[in-house]
Amino acid sequence: MAKDRISGTLAVILHADVAGSTRLVQQDEHLAHERIQGAFRRFSNAITQYHGHVRELRGDALLAEFERASDAVAAVLAFQADHSNHNAQLNDNIRATVRVGIAMGEVIIADNTVTGEGVVLAQRVEQLAEPGGLCITGAIYEALPQRLPFDLENLGEQLVKGFDDPIRVYRVELSSGESIPPPQDRSRHELSPRKRRLIAAITLTALVVGGAASYWFKPWTPREEPASVDRMAFPLPEEPSIAVLPFDNMSADPEQEFFADGMTEDLITDLSNIVGLFVISRNATFTYKDKPIKPRQVAEDLGVRYVLEGSVRRVGDQVRINVQLIDAVTGFHLWAKRYDGLQTDVFGLQDKVVGQIAAALEINLTTAGTGRHGRNETDVAEAYDAFLEGWELYRRDTRDDTIKSIPLFERALELDPDYGRAYAALAGVYWRITDRGWRKDVGLLYMEAYNLTKDYIAKAQAQATSLAYSISSKLLAFDGRSNDALVEIERAIALERSNPDYYIIKSWNLIYAGRAEEAEENARLAIRINPNYPPSYLHALGRALFYEGQYVEAAKVFKRIASQQPDREVTYMRLAATYGQLGRLEEAAAAVSKYNELVAKRNYTSLTVQEAAIWFEDTYLFEDESYPEPMFEGLRKAGVSEGAAPSAEGFYYRALVSRHIGQTGRYFDVEGVPKIDATAVKVLSDRGVIIIDVRDAGTYARGHIPGAVNLDLNLVLTKENLAKTVNKNDEVIFHCWGKACKYSAMACAKAALWGYTRVQYFDGGFPAWKAAGYDIATH
Hints:
This protein is of the alpha/beta class. Among the domains are: 2-179, Nucleotide cyclase, GGDEF domain (Alpha-Beta Plaits, 2-Layer Sandwich); 229-369, Rossmann fold; 567-652, no CATH class; 672-771, Oxidized Rhodanese, domain 1, CATH 3.40.250. Helix content is 48%, strand content 17%. The strands form four sheets. Strands 1, 2, 3, 4, 5, 6, 7 and 8 form an eight-stranded mixed sheet that branches. Strands 9, 10, 11, 12, 13 and 14 form a six-stranded mixed sheet that branches. Strands 18-17-19-20 form a four-stranded parallel sheet, with helices on both faces. A hairpin with a 2-residue loop joins strand 4 (97-110) and strand 5. Helix 17 (500-512) packs antiparallel against helix 18 and helix 21 packs antiparallel against helix 22. The longest helix is centred in the N-terminal third of the chain and has 25 residues, at 193-217. The chain starts with a strand and ends in an 8-residue tail after the last helix. 48% of the residues are buried.
């Protein structure tokens, strides 16, 4: 803060680094470090000879300050000429090539660290230089005397991160046939001791007289354009609020981007655990990644007061974090700080940043708010790297990237078998594969993917993380245990309060528990901490509003979803029910028509609107199975079914199936339909009894009971198709992928309602058949 700053002044700043240092280290770590250190020793000597001051020298980076632009440029060219000759004498490829950027700007010296706009600008300009080259800003160009023998190539205006306006940049080389200007002798300009004492006395008096004014006006503090509270998309929270922008990767290797992203995300998680601090989610701030954005705009977009910017540089096992905290409302930089350490202590460095932010915002850190609480990590740096690489892929949320993340998480566990987050991440991967039907892409059956999810989550819970609790919550909700699922997601939120997805999971479970008002609150909170929310958040909000009976507001939300996702049929089913409850029958009919149109395009032969309500509302997930009745009632009012009572066939077969919760999860019973085990199925199969597999065709093809007929419940199992397969008075067995699968239970109920008199329910399904060791057919 202001009282901690030693000085602030305009200066010529030189920033240099070694191009491709990671590649050099990978070839020969010891020799590479020796060569880099040797290069910077010679560079430091040149800087000193040209009256510059080396402010920082660490790893593959150097920062220096000059009074005159000409001295800085001459020092660089003198060093590069000498260094080029030095490299030419080497008989290997481990050659440190230094690139340099020079800028003019204000600097702040605090805690023996030089920071400020000038430092950041010099770093950005350096990145535009070629290996062994030098780039300068337009301000340095203007400050250079024309008599100097330098060739300056105008590279035009360049957009650089962190600066809203383009920066004019020049490439500098020594003119052909010319010599580098030698350092100027400044001894003749030295002041006598008497004059120096007089100037010091005058300066001291001026400081005493002007001290109060300088404190209030803070002339040394960088200033941004202030954000307008009136223009903010959301009201400022009462407590301090902050957005953490994605940290810049300042390493020479662009492949280190995942490390900078991981550091940012971990820091957001740590900050979210500080009681009394409102933290915007990673989902929202990462939309600004690689974009030139001002803190003012971030604050107005997200409704926060403070913005944290930073960068990460990693060389070998050395890590440097530079951060600066900005009060976007006033435009002032509150503080800037550098943290250096080993990669093995990267979490300790993060804790220091969290503590500094809390101190700046005058927030007391409690034991629960120190950032480490509940987030189990690893002491193996390579395992953390592998995890972050996998996590970057997993966060992209695509099929291919999710699958590519698997070997990286597995690698993290090979390096550290106790790595809790890696187990949780694999559980998340296999849950996604299970839930989204990507099983064939990894060669797994449904229950195999589902069981892998459960296996990994069991291992993850030995060192539970927020991710582990969230996946556990999804598994419990899948089993219809919404109240138990709520306990798990609350634990996840306690460890990661800024993750909006967790509030959406909580919202869904609150709906299943019959607590719609609380569900709405959590959906709105998710939207607040992630203003760039996806349509899935609106689905949660719309359902909560519907079950509260706020049909007007629910209709508005579902209509917004339809405008964003015009091809998603479930939206029109819910919109039809909502319009039905409102008596807006023409709009309800239009929604039903749109639903039917989309279903026809997808070639669904049996998924009527009534059945869609059953599938998408999933009555078996509700604690009280009568709770979703308003959805069915809305459809009836919309004219979807005949009469005022639930006379549609789908409602009847739903009534025949009952769900139960056992120690191993959910299971189903079908009224009037007996259950049989794998042994009985084998006997009946040998007798020629028809077995109907209601799983999807792809899963069936990878493994099924020999002779079983595949009638996908959702796409193929119609009254007409069943009649072609078996007579009503013949024995028939239905199964799917296990006791937790409701499809075979519903198939039994359908068949019973259609007049089949000898229906039998193999609830263990294909997994039980396989476990019994019986033959398996594939095609």
